[in-house]
Amino acid sequence: MKSNHSTRDIHASNATSSLVQVVKPDIIVSSGIAELDNLLGGFKAGETTLVDGNSSLIEDLPNQLCVNTYRTFHSETIYIDGGMCANPYQIARYARMLELEQQDVLENVVMSRAFTVYQLSTLVHEMLEPMIQKRSPRTLIIGMLPALYLDHEVPVREAQTLLSLDLQKIQDLTARYQLITVFTNLDVMPLSPSRGLGKTLYESVNEIVRMKQFEHCTSLELVKKQKSTTIVRGAEGQLCLEEFGMVS
Fold it and tell me: Do 87 and 64 contact (CB within 8 A), yes or no?
């Protein structure tokens, strides 16, 4: 039977289909930090991002993401606290600043706290997916992800194995359910990207945002995309490291 569609029509149809896929916008949630959002373009669905460094801005980032997720999508956030960092009062405070109903925002944040690396692994492997299927969240946050793996009572090799398995599971869930997944690590000394747990974590995520705090400014670096900028927070007329060429 002769087809009614010419080869040209088929090629044109395929080209149109490909074009639609290319221009499809990313699903993103903003951090609430203008300089970071301009640099990163927002945290994207289907990707895992590690925010690592010594900046005090990292501490409040999960709170802002919870509120911005609700404001943008009217969707829930699953927030797994791996380092005693979750603070509902700060989430409510940020919601109030954005003139959102605090109770509505808090009701759309599902918090789980892990006190040991084994509890965290159980959450990830046994409880996280059923929770995702039940709640249909847009964002997944794991605060202070590396902290519990650095427990001196956990053998180094075992911690390394657990982290690798946990990250693999989280990556699978992030891709399958198109989650916006963000890990945070606030430490005086950032993780080493060349050895140990830091190397495993850095190699597993889609992007690393490194935030380094100085006296009057904070440097932001996208490690994998090799892009950087600076947040300047100082009195008018003061100089910062950027002006001396020390921060790009």
Answer: no
